[in-house]
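Blinded run. Sample ID left blank on purpose so nobody reads anything into the name before looking at the predicted structure. Input follows.
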Amino acid sequence: SRQFALGFIFAFATFKKSIPMLTIAYIFFLVMFVGDFFIGISQKENSLIIAALVMCVISSAMLFVINKANM
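Blinded prediction complete.
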């Protein structure tokens, strides 16, 4: 259900061309994958840890791009 909610937020923010809403969506995305990272550590699941790290880097980069474009 979190992927559906995230997809809906991204679609709505893109349709409305709302920078603040996209920022919130990427922050939610980042928090979600930080949680997955810690779950991967607690379960000793390397694939979840690696995927979460990659997605954290991507969402952080997108937040940087959005905030840089907003200035």
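Unblinding after everyone has recorded impressions. The radius of gyration is 13 Å.
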